[in-house]
Amino acid sequence: MLRLMTVFALLFAMTAPASAQVTTDDPRAATGGAQTLEDILRRQEGLVMDDSFRSDVTGNPANAAPITDQLGTRGGASDPDLWRAYRYEVADLSTQARGPAVTTMIQDRGMWWQAFREGPLVLMTAALLGGTLALLALFYLIRGRIHIDGEKTGRTITRFKAFERFGHWLLASSFILLGLTGLVSLLGRKVLIPTFGHEAFSGLAIASKWIHNNVSWAFMLALVIVFVVWVVHNIPDRTDLKWLAKAGGLFGGDHPPAKKFNAGQKLIFWAVIILGGSISASGISLLFPFEFNMFAHTFSVINGWGVPGWFGLPDLPYPLLPHEEMQFAQLWHAIISLVLTAIIIAHIYLGSVGMEGAFDAMGKGEVEEQWAREHHSIWADEVLNTKPSKSEA
Amino acid sequence: MKAFLVSLVALVVITVGANQILIRVGPSSAEATVSNDNVRLSD
């Protein structure tokens, strides 16, 4: 009996300190100040949490043992203290390697990027590209192919010269290659590796990266060519408002007047120039890592204007770590590219199966005179008044 | 379609050319961060 009571007394004595810790006000008393299961769950859910209980515990030089004692060279920091210092970017690091990002050992603030890239961004890709294709299929079912209404004349007029078509096709072929290889990079880990396996994806990924990095220069050159040769014809004017008011005659059958480019084509032109330019800038930033930082300064200016506050949002992050610059560049590059791809899919549809006679403009450079009169009446009048059309016979 | 075919040839030339120029001229992020030279700690 006495032995049993001794065991009970011992057990009580062992559990007493633990129960004393649990009953205190410190929510992490039970873990001795370390994070609790609740902290981990909050972090996994992406909820905002005050993690100063971790970020502030990075060692205390005042507690350091003398240099001659055991662990005295640690300077008052344990291993976990040092790892926390790496994680929260407060460690005083020096490295033999030289570069802008070599002292970033752990990038805690990059977790949201990884989660966004592997989740919402993949869904966004499927929704945007799949949704565009579905809408075009629906449009084709409802509206069908847009035919030339009047009787064909058999005569053609020159719509695009050889150099214009060269610029267009250089832009188109490079864009398609960049789009496909970009999708390989974007969807590799989540879609292609689970489907085809690591080994098959490896070769594809290496080839895609090479093509994507090097074809980009052809895209940028073509963007400049297209801008130079067509910008004069794409300045918005009053005829565009009339064209837009009638939705380009897509549904009514009535063709609103248009110059060389109608308002829809002008919108595509400016989308290609502005979005394509932005994709090029972020692409160069990614091509030469850490050399061209676009986002920290931009965020600083936007915060200075108070823009996030207009929408009840906190300020954008500033300053940014080198890796964060690359992460924002990657997201911007991918999202803007997806938006432009959706626009270009619609452009390809209307320029090929969607409209009779449209492909000839870029295929041969010559268009049926009646097609020109219906879709670009002002331009057709100008051309025909200065230069007679050619007979196809 | 001659313009299209010429653009494809130009695409290949620009792609390979850009790659060769970048290899020869740089800048290489690898070269910016490492060196093959020995480290001299003192004279």
Annotation keywords:
heterodimer; A: 393 residues; mainly alpha; Fumarate Reductase Cytochrome B subunit; 2 domains; three-stranded antiparallel beta sheet; elongated; B: 43 residues; 0% strand; rod-shaped
Detailed description of the structure:
The complex is a heterodimer of chains A (393) and B (43). In chain A, 62% of the residues lie in helices and 2% in strands. With 393 residues, chain A is an all-alpha fold. In chain A, helix 6 (120-143) runs parallel beside helix 13 (322-351). The longest helix of chain A has 35 residues, at 162-196. Chain A is elongated, with a radius of gyration of 31 Å. Chain A starts with a helix and ends with a strand. The relative contact order of chain A is 0.11. Residues 18-22 of chain A have low confidence and may be disordered. Chain B is mostly helical and 43 residues long. Chain B contains 2 helices and no strands. Chain B is rod-shaped and about 65 Å long. The chains are: A mainly alpha (393), B mainly alpha (43). Chain A binds chain B through residues 96-99, 102, 162-163, 165-170, 172-174, 177, 210-211, 213-215, 217-218, 221, 288-291, 363-365, and chain B through 1-4, 6-8, 10-11, 14-16, 18-19, 22, 27, 29, 32-34, 39.
